[in-house]
Amino acid sequence: xxxxxxxxxxxxxxxxxxxxxxxxxxxxxxxxxxxxxxxxxxxxxxxxxxxxxxxxxxxxxxxxxxxxxxxxxxxxxxxxxxxxxxxxxxxxxxxxxxxxxxxxxxxxxxxxxxxxxxxxxxxxxxxxxxxxxxxxxxxxxxxxxxxxxxxxxxxxxxxxxxxxxxxxxxxxxxxxxxxxxxxxxxxxxxxxxxxxxxxxxxxxxxxxxxxxxxxxxxxxxxxxxxxxxxxxxxxxxxxxxxxxxxxxxxxxxxxxxxxxxxxxxxxxxxxxxxxxxxxxxxxxxxxxxxxxxxxxxxxxxxxxxxxxxxxxxxxxxxxxxxxxxxxxxxxxxxxxxxxxxxxxxxxxxxxxxxxxxxxxxxxxxxxxxxxxxxxxxxxxxxxxxxxxxxxxxxxxxxxxxxxxxxxxxxxxxxxx
Length: 416
Ligand SMILES: [Mn+2]
What we know:
By secondary structure, this protein is α/β, with parallel strands linked by helices. The protein has a single domain (46-215, 227-388), classed as 3-Layer(aba) Sandwich (Arginase, Chain A), CATH 3.40.800.10. The chain is built from eleven helices and eight strands. An eight-stranded parallel beta sheet has the order 2-1-3-8-7-4-5-6, sandwiched between helices. Helix 8 (282-299) runs parallel beside helix 9 and helix 9 (332-341) runs parallel beside helix 10. The N and C termini lie far apart (76 Å). The structure holds manganese (II) ion. Manganese (II) ion (MN) is lined by residues 182, 206, 208, 210, 232, 310, 354. Manganese (II) ion (MN) binds next to loops.
């Protein structure tokens, strides 16, 4: 008995011996990956991939180049910040929108960028996509700021894109602007009308009209033309006056603003500018697919469109970090659903505006929505390009058939 106890004890000792000499921090010896390619390839393989939380903040970890000062760096789609917010009527702060959206896009990476709703990864497809940095824009003089933004936008869209004419319609680089307040859209429209040599249709997601007459704020000076005519609620009125917007093929979606006075005069004024108005409440009657149908039948797939998303189209419960919040908006999921449904529009430029992080929730709620909207728009630009290049990839989601079949079975049961 004593003998067997001693034996057990010594066996335990032998078993514990390796633990006594090694520590928790010892890993098995690292096996070096097989060498392949140049030394640069090696470095890229070892250290090239960022985690969501590493790296300097650019949109989706895209390569950052200050495109405005590097005309020799050709690109196809550029993300550009327009940190301008001195044309707001209520809460300022959207000048910090670009950096908030970039930070909130950190979990978008090229290696995990496959859009399961669209069936493509926009970061691993035909276009060369850059984070072009920000437009340096003055916060002290709105007339100068508008000039700076217009000349910056014009500078970039006048260049030749890397994938020039492949797809055929890709004759100018496309920009997705991160606002900034909504007034930045005027600069984009001026530049786009110039290079496309025609008025551009505007698809405008917003709680508000933004086609307001500059004199609609009651003031003794309302009829004096000043810099005050240019605001985040009048830029489409100014654009209409300048003939930049395609009258008859433009759309507002998600409206729920109060109107001026005691009648529908604001709608009459909007009517003259040729917008179709889809109100936030309309989704209850026609659903996401009905909203998509309304937009697509109005604009079609050929008209060049500027897609402008004011983040306040989303309910302030889900996107509180914005300048002029209005209760009763769409959910983030509904907006994503609508954006996916209009993916075959001919989008020539886009923006995501009015993200004001100072009023945002603890978890970057609004900025996350903004980053997702940018990703969906980017996906659509890339997917439309794929189709036009004849490289359309239609991927079927594994399991989809099963779910559809189950749905059918359930429907039959309900009938019985
Ligand atoms: Mn707006």
